[in-house]
Amino acid sequence: MLLELNDVTVSYGQTPVLFGVNMAVDRGDIACILGRNGVGKTTLLRSVIGLNKAISGNIIFDLQNITRLPIFKRARSGIAYIPQGREIIPYLSVLDNLKLGLSAGKKKSSKIPHEIFEFFPMLKQHLNRQGGLLSGGQQQQLAIARGLMSDPKIMLLDEPTEGIQPSIVQEIEDTLKRINREKGITLIVVEQKVDFVRQLAQKFFIMEKGVVVAEGATPALTDDLVHKYLAV
């Protein structure tokens, strides 16, 4: 087991958002988290990287209790977080955005690994271009590549297909599968597109009102579950 959340509760101020969440993800898994808007999916990812503090429960990563660990130590232990909206630095070049990812990892190097351009060949053509001038799909690929720069054991991706045209969504799906297969990196993806989840993930978790209400291997993600918990 690479990541475990045991009875994790998280609040924003006085308002509870997660209520005793339990979740376990094996090393090498691709897991997707689904749920309607506002059920706590993003908060769950942010609690794993440390942006939201757990007020009770434990988060275990790679056999270490990281519940009280600072964000930078979680990153150096092998957790990469790719937030919703990508949050690249628009006035920095693609190259400098990538180098920011290096600072999060253990390795002290300023060199971009060649494999980054194998996974994302588009980036090599735009190294000197400002990040803000890239298309939405290109920015998403840059954000994933920046997360990969820290040589993580797990990548947490928050809605990586949001607002992206279908052809680029397919590219992102294929690339995430390659990263998982070739690098052995575990992926946890918050996602709204059920078809994307069914094609990408090996297991799923469905959240409602701050708790996990259903989980299983992806073939068990039935239309009945989708209608019950995800239909608007």
TrEMBL record:
One of its GO terms (molecular function) is branched-chain amino acid transmembrane transporter activity. It comes from Chamaesiphon polymorphus CCALA 037. One of its GO terms (biological process) is L-amino acid transport. NCBIfam families: urea_trans_UrtE (TIGR03410). This is Urea ABC transporter ATP-binding subunit UrtE. Residues 3-232 form the ABC transporter domain. The keyword Cell membrane does not apply. It comes from the Bacteria. The gene is urtE. Belongs to the ABC transporter superfamily. SMART domains: AAA (SM00382). PANTHER family: HIGH-AFFINITY BRANCHED-CHAIN AMINO ACID TRANSPORT ATP-BINDING PROTEIN, HIGH-AFFINITY BRANCHED-CHAIN AMINO ACID TRANSPORT ATP-BINDING PROTEIN LIVF. CDD domains: ABC_TM1139_LivF_branched. Keywords: Amino-acid transport, ATP-binding, Nucleotide-binding, Transport.
